[in-house]
Design goal:
By secondary structure, the protein is α/β, with parallel strands linked by helices. The chain is built from 4 helices and 9 strands, in the order ββαβββαβαβαββ. The strands form 2 sheets. A 7-stranded mixed sheet has the order 2-4-5-6-7-9-8. Strands 1-3 form a two-stranded parallel ribbon. Helix 3 links the parallel strand 6 and strand 7. The longest helix has 10 residues. Keywords: Signal.
């Protein structure tokens, strides 16, 4: 899922004529950063319906207005990254909101938040799933590390996280939550079952197991 080879030249620095394909239907690619993903969308992939992207780094940048168009022809989208990002809310969520006609979505993400709470079922639904009215399958593994040093935020229990997935047409979801005694730091892992990913990153002693790999 996560090749170790690095992209020597980011896609955004390539001439736009190098990114033209009128007939490509499916693309699987590894890119160095999320901005490359956006430039792929801005290229002339008029027939692209399936896009599978492994991103080495997801970090902040300003998204230009011409890269904020709705991606109406995209039916299947997979986004995976092996590194933690602090820009989930500012970059990934707006990107997913453009994909209103998706039928299948797959996410493998590691999220860091400060003075906030965990990514949960309510947030996933309200922030982007509610706009994907054609969605038939949503597969995900999302881990959130929270550091609340300046604001006091009551972190939810594992039971509370499970309740956020009730009544919103999710398939079976497993979650694990670890909050320190002062609730200044915490970890939350949520993933869909059966587990369809080939790997599992950043496990520690707070994880109690329970994953069954399906090839």
């Amino acid at each position: 899922m996560f090749p170790t080879r690095r992209c020597l030249l980011p896609i955004c620095y390539l001439p736009s004529t190098n990114c033209v394909s009128l007939t490509l239907v499916k693309l699987t690619i590894t890119v160095s950063c999320l901005v490359d993903c956006l430039y792929l969308f801005d290229c002339c992939f008029d027939s692209l319906s399936t896009l599978i992207i492994n991103v080495s780094n997801i970090f902040g940048f300003e998204i230009s207005k011409d890269l904020q168009k709705k991606l109406l022809k995209l039916k299947c989208f997979s986004l995976s990254s092996p590194k933690f990002t602090v820009d989930y809310d500012d970059l990934i969520v707006p990107l997913l909101c453009q994909m209103v006609n998706l039928e299948e979505l797959k996410l493998y993400l590691l999220v860091e938040r400060f003075d906030s709470t965990y990514v949960d079922g309510i947030q996933l639904y309200d922030q982007f799933l509610v706009y994907m009215t054609q969605l038939k399958k949503f597969t995900f593994n999302i881990k959130t590390n929270v550091f609340n040093n300046f604001l006091k935020v009551k972190l939810p229990s594992n039971e509370a996280i499970q309740h956020t997935f009730i009544g919103r047409d999710y398939q079976q979801v497993t979650s694990y939550v670890y909050n320190n005694s002062m609730e200044t730091e915490g970890k939350c892992l949520i993933y869909s079952v059966p587990y369809e990913f080939d790997c599992f990153f950043h496990l520690d002693n707070s994880f109690q197991g329970g994953i069954i790999f399906h090839k």
